[in-house]
Amino acid sequence: MQIQYKPKRNLLQTILHSEIMQGMAFTLKQLFAKPITRQYPQEKPEIKLGFRGQHALVRDQETGTSKCVACMRCVTVCPSRCIHIRFHEDEERGCRVVDSYDIEALRCVYCGFCEEVCPVNALVLTEIFEYAAYNRESIFFDQERLLANWDAFADMKGSAINGYINPFWRPRGIPERELTAAKRLDVPDEWTIEGQVVGNLVKRDQ
Ligand code: SF4
Ligand code: SF4
Q1: Which ligand is nearest to the CA of 52?
Q2: CA-to-CA distance for 190 and 62, rounded, in angstroms?
């Protein structure tokens, strides 16, 4: 088999150095083309629906703390095993009480499974992506830090945080009757099949 690395040139192409002319023409064309480089950090990227950023525990406006009921679904589903929860049973109230809730965010693969399975929408991957740090401790989120992350996200969203719905809180393709009450959320109009990043079947069986 003969391997030809570049087409053979004829005499005229050799004399005129046609490849150089082609290269110069391309360079000249790019001088007048619209720039595609984003001037980050002055120019922020547009956050798309279903973006998975910094972890947060939603602060319940009534209790002032997390909505987590220690069902352990997020711990079970997490492929990275980076969520750690300790809890005790409150016999009097007949419920579980969270003692500690930690996420080792450096091990997270941002799959979103944890927020999708959470029956009470206590957990969210926010739109915050700028949280690089110089040490591992800063990317280890305990419950206090996760609630503070939510507060920062709420500040960032302003009034839009009221009625905020994360696409992962409404699992795709699951009939409403099979969802917990908290997950029976109205799908915003902009979540069309084309626009719905998380799942194409989100509007099925509504
Ligand atoms: S996004 Fe995925 S990997 Fe990260 S904490 Fe949630 S379930 Fe685990
Ligand atoms: S799935 Fe939700 S309610 Fe259950 S333990 Fe995780 S954060 Fe808490």
Answers
A1: 1
A2: 29
Residue 144 pLDDT > 60: yes
Cα 166 from chain centroid?
A: 10
Task: Tell me how crowded residue 193 is: count the other CB atoms within 10 A of its CB.
Answer: 11
Q: Is 184 or 128 the better-scoring residue by pLDDT?
A: 128
Q: Please, what is the average pLDDT of the chain?
A: 88
Total domains in the chain come to 1
Whether 105 lines ligand 1, by a CB cut-off of 6 Å, is no
Residue 63, CA atoms < 13 Å, CB-side half-sphere: 9
Is residue 77 in a domain?
Answer: yes
> Atom of ligand 1 at shortest distance to CA of 77?
7
Distance 3 CA to ligand 1 centre (A): 48
Domain span at 103: 55-129+137-161
- Which ligand is the nearest neighbour of the Cα of 73? 2
Report the alpha-carbon distance of residue 163 to residue 67 in Å, rounded. 16
Measure 125 CA to ligand 1 centroid, in angstroms: 9
CATH classification of the domain holding 88: 3.30.70.3270
The answer to the question of residue 9 being in a domain is no
Predicted TM-score (pTM) of the model is 0.79
Reported as a single tens digit per residue, the pLDDT across 62-113 is 999 999 999 999 999 999 999 999 999 999 999 999 999 999 999 999 999 9
